[in-house]
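User: Quick sanity check before I run a bigger batch. Here is a single chain. Can you write out its predicted 3D structure?
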Amino acid sequence: MTRAATVPPPAATAPAPAGRSGGTGRPRGDTALLGLLGFAAFLLVLELVPRLGLVSANYLPPTSEIAVALGELLGESRFWTAVADTLRGWFLGLAIAVALGVVVGFVLGTVPVLREFTASTVEFLRPIPSVALIPLAVLLFGTDLRSVLLLVVYAAFWQVLVQVLYGVRDVDPVARDTAYTFRLSRWARIRHLLWPTALPYLLTGVRLAAAVALILAITAELIVGAPGLGNEINRAQSGGAVDTMYALIIVTGLLGVAVNVLARRLERAVLSWHPSVRGEGTR
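Assistant: Done. Predicted structure follows.
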């Protein structure tokens, strides 16, 4: 859960023809329509599987019944309170993880001795799944928000840290030597050399961390019992409200899609100067 994948930042690619979706060659409108048709087909399968008796409706209600349960949830203040609790834990945990990842990443990345000194510790801690810390979180903080934050921060921190370390390491050696030749201060090197190079990596780490943070926030609520959508899913399952349980699961999926869309828009806005993003703007 906490294993941080190293994903390269957007690469500079040649712009695709205007109005075309990169990779497929299809117009963007057609790509979005195909995506919606695929999701509609998925919902149709979920409707037919229980009605044809392939799976008991007691375990998998038809889509229409889940939609009714979702409509009822939307009118309950309890549901919106749970959504707010989940988003609060996700946002605070992600913000703390990003801040720590940037600071620690730049410190370790710019001090070779310190980076080598901590390398084994980082490689030891990074693969530990956040869920393994659940007993510790409960012992320290019980079932309140701090338990969720502990798990979210631990999981998201490594995503950001690893990307920042790779970004700092990717600085052009010629530009670095030139900066030393002109005797730029440490702050000037960070501002004009390290930061522009590491920023695409950092935003990739933030995008990955945002998804991981949401997963861990809901997992913590589900297992620890902290307030939020995960806790509501557990309550619905325990009470036999299967359709409500699936409705809540769908809400978590929609939140994941929203988080991914927001992260990509942030990436494009901040990296508007990057060749790959400028290329997208002409498509």
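The two ends are 36 Å apart (CA to CA).

User: Great, the batch can go ahead then.
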